[in-house]
Specification:
alpha+beta; disordered N terminus; membrane; elongated; about 625 residues; 13-stranded antiparallel beta sheet; 27 strands; 15 helices; transmembrane helix
Length: about 625
Amino acid sequence: MSLPSPTETLVSDKGVATAIKVTEKSSCSSLQQHGDESASRSFKSRLLRTVDRYWLFEFFGLFLAFSSLAAVIALLAVCGNQPSPNWTLTIGKGRLRKKLGLTLNTILSICGTVFSSALLIPVASSMSQLKWVWFGRGRPLAHYQAFDSAARGPLGSIMLLWTLRCRRLACIGAVIIIAALGISFSLQALVVYPLVAVPTGQSTIARTNVDFGNTVGLDDLTSNMRGAIYAVLYQYTQPSLSFSCPTGNCTWPEAYTSLGFCSQCYNITASLKPACGTEPVSTLDSSGNITGYINAPYCNYTLPNGLELIGLPSINVTDLVISGSRNNTVNFPDPATVTVLTTIQGSWQSSPPQWENMLAHPNDTTESEGLVSWNATECGLFYCAQKFNTTIVTGTLDEKLVDTYSTAYVRDERHVVIDIPKTFSNMTDNTYYGYNFKGLTVFFEGLWTGTFTHSDEERSFVPSSDIALALQPMQLADFKAMFSSLASSMSHSIRITAAENATPQNVDDAGPLKATGKAWQERPFTVVRWGWIALPATLWELALILLVGTILTTVRENTILWKGFSLAAFSHPLTEDVQDKFSDVVSPREMMKIAEKLDVRWEKTDRGYKLVQPYDTTA
């Protein structure tokens, strides 16, 4: 029987010999594989030791927390004072494709979770390591449980603060763990979303450089202009101004100008020229019989334009006279004035007291009335360029007239021209045309006529025209209000109808037929309240202080770097005599009572590091 070769192994199993051939190549391959595995394990071991020794994992936690906080600050710096952002995240494919909405609060919540979780990595490790440092001297065994509980949550941290009386480095970790409960709230409170009006479109309002009047060349008014005038005089609804505001809230950042009408009213009583005399007036007895005549004084009052109020005592007397003449006016000599309304009003009284001494018979009375007071008013209406500041709030137009320019000249009998300074208007074309001049002057001259009389005997009132009836009770303030409304209504009519009457031949004169503004809509804006960033920033700084302090304390006390390694408690148990004290304990509370009275110290014995009583140095 020959011996096996060096590359063969003889294996015997119950008398059966089997030769197994092991080649030299297989042996080398196995050794190489074993060497690679050993090298890999050695590298991994060295890497883990480096991570533990230099606290790399804890510093990574601090870095991750800092990065998430920096991301929050950068995100809010970009989104602050901007409309509230909304992002869409698409996941899945085909029929499973879904879109998820992401808001700023969602991202803040994610960053807050990352920050809290990362921050607790160095805090928990530091708290656990400080536990081993703490027992470098004799301490109650119950403190071991206090440190473990503090590293797990806020309640344990509160107990640790009470146990250490807030005078140890570990108390910083306890404060961080408790305050970390407010991180999510703090990050959410960083932003609020007040509603802020933002421009979302364009608004327009009618304007024009031209009053086209009647485009067929007649000296008559359009129905729109007539309606605008009568609407004011007879208390009908005024025409509404044309505007476009899609959101109901619009502004015009720059004041715009448009052709319109302006008005002024004055008290011209001082301009009345009296012409006085006497007139025989009959006297009556108690039975109504004429007993004689007296010469009663009276005065007629005349204005420079020829309008006259007769003050002659009579049964029928005149309360109001009206004139529409533009000649010889007191305050409106400009020929470009469209119309001037002049009125004289009188107040009458029966048997004025100053007549009584003129009566031949004291017991007789007179039925005649005498003029006891009088006043005159003059109101003018004229073309002008108007400048407006305008807003629309919840669909309600608020157009405020801020300035006017009315220096005009008559180019011909049909129209007037206004050349306004460039500083007055933001329009490129600053020439304004009133082609309706003659039609308006003719219309108002026919309108402002009439008288209002009454009979003292029958107390009946006789207006000679509708306008006389409307104007009779008015005072100066009423005239001012009426002419202001009249100018506004007629201005609206010009602007409303300008686009309708503009033709290819004259549309260039009208300038832009609409003033352009901005339409606003309330949207949630991101407003950052940076003060709330103080909590997470402070906690991060405290965590850094805790980690650096723990490292320095561990080096100074020459404590083994166990951190939160739970198996260390099994590697360094209590000595047997200390364990005997807990042999009969059957509840955690009973064990804690014993541990509170039992001081131990972590030190090296002849059997390795153990928790021993300070006087016990044996294992």
